[in-house]
Design a protein that fits this description.
Helix content is 59%, strand content 0%. It contains 3 helices and no strands. It is elongated and about 55 Å long.
Length: 80
């Protein structure tokens, strides 16, 4: 597990240094680590390439900030 944590941190530093957004970086690191888990023989260079490719081609918008507290959902009155 220590190697995975180290690799995760290094990938994040590499992508942030390449001026990718923080949300893109997080998603790309998770994608690369999933790839590493499914392909255990993949080398570090391949995992870095996967993370960079995902960060470059990811078009997911950043998560909007929540300004109000999250409320507990209530059931309709007829189901109570």
């Amino acid at each position: 597990m220590r190697h995975e944590e180290f690799l995760r941190g290094q990938l994040k530093k590499i992508l942030l240094a390449a001026s990718y957004d923080d949300s893109q970086t997080g998603a790309a690191v998770e994608h690369a680590m999933d790839y590493k888990r499914t392909n255990p023989n993949a080398g570090t260079e391949i995992v870095i390439a996967k993370a960079k490719f995902f960060a470059k081609h990811n078009t997911r918008p950043a998560t909007p900030e929540r300004r109000e507290p999250i409320r507990q959902a209530a059931l309709p009155k007829w189901k109570r």
